[in-house]
Design goal:
The chain is α+β, with helices and mostly antiparallel strands. The chain has 3 domains: 7-73 and 128-146, Ribosomal Protein S5, domain 2 (2-Layer Sandwich), CATH 3.30.230; 75-111; 149-284, no CATH class. Helices cover 60% and strands 13% of the residues. The chain has helices spanning 46-56, 82-98, 107-111, 128-171, 174-194, 199-212, 216-235, 240-259, 264-284, and strands spanning 7-15, 18-27, 32-38, 60-70. The protein has a 4-stranded mixed β-sheet, covered by helices on one side. Helix 1 (46-56) runs parallel beside helix 4, helix 5 (174-194) runs antiparallel to helix 6 and helix 7 (216-235) packs antiparallel against helix 8. The radius of gyration is 36 Å and the shape is rod-shaped.
Length: 288
Amino acid sequence: MIYSMTGYAVKTRDIEHGTLQLELKSVNSRYLDFHFRVSEELRALEMPLRELLAARLARGKIECRLSFNAGAARAEQLQLNSELLATLHSLNDQVRGQMPEARPLSVNDVLRWPGMFGDQSVDYAAFGPHVLALAREVLDEFAASRGREGEKLAEMIVDRVNAIRDIVTRVAPRIPEAQALYTEKLRQRLTEALGGASDERVLQEVAVFATRIDVAEELTRLTAHLDEVERVLKQGGACGKRLDFLMQELNREANTLGSKSAITEVSQAAMDLKLLIEQMREQIQNLE
């Protein structure tokens, strides 16, 4: 399967003390580049997350956001710290006795007093299994989104490959005839220009020029590169770098074809080829 480097996925998971949320999004990059946005309480889980993501992803600038929202405790779980409550009551009376003008403690003050409901601390280290399980779910959805995008890109690339083949098929049969006509015109002009030069000299010059404008080799290599592009696409996997290299080779052949062109039709074909190759290259930049 072909994967795009552009993707997005987010999921949440309810656990005992609240809700975990993990978000992944990515854009294209030459390498695998991670950027983590993790709260300090969960910072110890960054390395296991990094290892899990690196095992599934090959390229892309990946942003990973992990957060935890503490949930409100259920009413039946709340129990007042009787000893602390009695202590506060006694201290309140003592302070009011010495300072009658002081404001007494309110119910809100008492309920917010640290430790009033016992130990409410959260063991973030115990979140590891929950976070990794959530990460696997998000990765599956993330990979699916990148796969859908990659499939669309692959279809577009195949369309351009077929368009290039059509141009080559249309132009290739015309080249020998057109080059022969152009070569004959050149021979006539050389004969007129060289005057008394021998026919052998003229034929030598014409032969050299004919060799320079022969584009059969370029057309053959173009076809071979197109075959390789289709093979790589069918093979799937992380193929972006390989396809990018093939775009360079295709562009080189198109440039050579244009520089050796002796007829307008081939020159126009070379320009059309370069446009299609550039369209493919732009999309291949997004493939993993």
